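Good day; I would like, with your permission, to put a structural problem before you. A protein sequence and the structure tokens that stand for its backbone fold form the material at issue. I would ask you to consider whether the tokens describe a fold that such a sequence might reasonably adopt. I set the record out below, with my sincere thanks for your time.
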Amino acid sequence: MTWLPADFVHPGRVALPGGHHLRPITGADTELDYPAVMGSRERLWSIYGEAWGWPPATMTVEQDRDDLVRHEVEIAAHKSFNYALFDDAGTALLGCVYIDPPEKAGADAEISWWVVDDQVGTDLQHALDALVPQWIAEAWPFERPRYVGRDLSWQDWQALPDIA
């Protein structure tokens, strides 16, 4: 059994209130992604660092571009998905949503998301927090999605058995 049905078409642009939107990230987004990630690096490391080793303190623009190109290739191949959160004009990257095949037993997808530091606690973060589970339920073919960092902590996730 594959992770996604062969005929599945992943969503393109997903609207949020105020004109904000999600869309699959590309290597061309590096100029917006790099300052967003590095400007929120300490908080992002506290969330993803132990599990993913990301984002490293010494990450360069070139390393970020390579990472985004890898995401772009994985999206095209339906291996995993990284959606960037943009303002209405598409001139500011404000966060990301990751939709990945499960690494740990008990789920058919592992989903996490973040916003940049200056959006923590804002209406935009609350809108994203409400949208993601609803969007996953309506637009994706998962029966047992796991919201890592939401429905269980990253520590609890790491303690789960790996998929063999």
